[in-house]
Write a structure and sequence with these properties.
By secondary structure, the chain is an alpha+beta fold. Strands 1, 2, 3, 4, 5, 6 and 7 form a 7-stranded antiparallel sheet that branches. The protein starts with 6 loop residues before the first helix and ends with a helix.
């Protein structure tokens, strides 16, 4: 009997809950009441996310229930890098950032709300990358 483990599931599991060392973001409020998120940086031993975004003003909603859109770039190292490299994920570039994380070639959006962020576009990007590799 041959056993097959879908590398996409393995990688998604690794990214589902990531302990982090650093989270920083610069927040400003524009004239429309939107919160602009700039210099967003999430750093963990295996993952680095960088980007910017907005929390859209909606007076009837609390800050944590307002629409969120973050556009992020991904960097990986350690176990996540190893899994993605072994799976030959074409979304990875050949270059590293200044902290040594292997960079992805594309950005992705995190949407939803601050209380319930939706990173599904990242999972879709990883899955499409893996499926595209299998089809070629």
């Amino acid at each position: 009997m041959v056993s097959y483990t879908d590398p996409t599931d393995e990688i998604a599991g690794m990214l589902a809950e990531v302990p982090f060392d650093q989270l920083s973001v610069r927040v400003s409020c524009d004239p429309s009441g939107n919160f602009r998120l700039s210099d967003f940086s999430f750093v963990s031993p295996v993952l680095r996310l960088q980007g910017e975004g907005v929390i859209t003003h909606e007076a009837a909603k609390s800050l944590f229930d307002r629409p969120l859109k973050l556009t992020l770039s991904l960097g990986v190292m350690g176990t996540v890098e190893k899994a993605m490299t072994q799976a030959k994920a074409p979304m990875l570039s050949a270059s590293r950032d200044e902290l040594g994380y292997l960079k992805s070639t594309d950005t992705f959006d995190v949407t939803g709300a601050p209380a319930r962020p939706d990173p599904s576009q990242l999972y879709t990007m990883v899955a499409r990358s893996m499926i595209g590799k299998l089809l070629h």
